[in-house]
Structures are given as structure tokens and as C-alpha cells.
Amino acid sequence: MKNLIFIGPPGAGKGTQAQRLCAKLGVPQVSTGDMLRAARKAGTELGRKADEFMAKGLLVPDEVVIGLVQERLGAADAQSGFVLDGFPRTVNQAEALDRMLQKMGRRIDHVVLLEVPDELIVERITGRRVGETSGRIFHLKYDPPPSPDRGENGERLLQRADDREDVVRPRLTEYAAMTAPLVAWYSNKGLLRRVDGVGALDEVTAALFRAIGAN
Ligand code: AP5
Hints:
About 45% of the residues lie in helices and about 15% in strands. α2 packs across α3 (about 45-55) and α4 runs parallel beside α5 (about 90-105). The two termini are about 15 Å apart. The strands form two sheets. A five-stranded parallel sheet has the order 2-3-1-4-8, with helices on both faces. It has helices at about 15-25, 30-40, 45-55, 60-75, 90-105, 120-125, 165-180, 180-190, 200-210, and strands spanning about 1-5, 30, 80-85, 110-115, 130, 135-140, 155-160, 190-195. By secondary structure, the protein is of the alpha/beta class. The structure holds BIS(adenosine)-5'-pentaphosphate. The site of BIS(adenosine)-5'-pentaphosphate has 36 residues, from α1, α2, α3, α6 and β6. BIS(adenosine)-5'-pentaphosphate binds near residues 14, 15, 33, 86 and 143.
């Protein structure tokens, strides 16, 4: 069983590498950011509430995301493993995840910390484009799509509303204040695997697979 967590600053490459790892392991990617954006697009009450925080680059309240993850990890396709991308993001969320997994008789195998310095983050985030239906992540310079506004199958490419420089700054501040403490938390449990997120995409993927013994 492979139960993994990805942590790292916004734009570090968590989603990109999680998509590659999930394809290799045959387990679902569980991205709280994607789930919240889907709820916002669907116009649900939860989506509207989440957007008040996301638009400002702030974390959505713990109880909202904990409920989403609890439901998602109970689904049939998550029973043979999962890659959690963007959750937990606070110690409170990590404690809730521990309780959830304990009840299910499961445990985390690896916590991957993708390390990228702040000075690279703004360029990565402002150059990001995402396939409207596939969710495939591109970068205009580092992982270019066939054209600046169309993906492989002609799908539209979107730019996330929070991928603006003025929203990236508060996202980095939230990461440092609320999420960075998880590094020590998971290190103390012997679960932390540090991966250098700087370098070509394939190099980072190779380092990631080595770090979790997935070669
Ligand atoms: P979320 O969607 O999780 O965003 P994030 O954590 O800020 O991370 P990103 O998705 O921005 O980046 P990433 O690390 O996945 O990078 P990517 O692979 O795309 O959260 C959004 C919001 O939702 C939060 O601000 C919060 O409000 C809310 N939220 C979500 N989860 C929550 C939770 N648990 N609790 C509370 N609130 C929550 O890569 C970025 C770009 O770089 C891409 O263009 C990619 O092509 C490029 N790239 C990747 N790797 C490389 C490389 N090696 N070299 C060059 N370019 C690269």
C-alpha cells in the first residue's frame, strides 16, 4: 500500500510531480486545491465560502478541508493508496488525518517535502497554465503547451485566479506560518523525505522516485 503526502510551498511542483507519481503507482491524486476549485466552479455553498479565502491567498478553515478529505479517502479508488497533494497544511489538519487513518487501520508511508526557494516561485506560478478538462499542468517556459492557450487535445488552457503576483506573496506567508511547522512534525515521526525541487522536471521526478524507493 502506498499512502503519501506532498508538502512544499505554492508552485513548488507538487501537483506536477503528484500526477507523475500517481500514474506510476496507479493511485489517485487527492488535491484539496483542485477539490475546492471544483466546488467553487459548481457554485456550491462550500465553494463560495472557500473562495473568500483562496482569492486572498489565505488557507481555507481546517474543518472545511478535513471534511472533504475524509469523504475522499473513503472512496473505493483510494483504498489501495493515495497521494495527498496540498493536505495537510496545518498541524491541526495533520492530527485530524492521523485520527482518520487510525480508524481506517492505515498509515502514511512517506511525506515528500519538495524544496524550492521563494525566488523561483513567482516565475513558476505566473507561467502556469492548466488544461480545462484534463487538469494537466503546463508552464509556458519550462513545460510548454502546444500553443499558449490550447493543450494537447485542443482543450482550453486556464490561468488560476490566485496565480497573480499580488496573491502569491500572502500564499508564501501562509505557507511559512501555517504549513512549514509540519516539516519538523513529520521529521520527528521519521516520515519526511526531502526532495530538491530545483532542476528539470524529469530530474526532479527521478529524485522523487529515489527518495521513496519507487524506482
Ligand atoms: P493549492 O491548489 O494546493 O495550491 P498550492 O499549494 O499553493 O500549490 P500550487 O498548486 O500553486 O503549486 P504546486 O506545488 O502544485 O505546483 P505545480 O506542480 O502546479 O491551493 C490553492 C488554495 O486552496 C490555497 O491557497 C488555499 O486557499 C486553499 N487550500 C488548498 N488546500 C488547503 C488546505 N489543505 N487547507 C487550507 N486551505 C487549502 O507547478 C507550478 C508551475 O511550475 C507549473 O507551471 C509547472 O509546470 C512548473 N514547474 C513544476 N516543476 C518545475 C520544475 N522542476 N522546473 C520548472 N518549472 C516547474
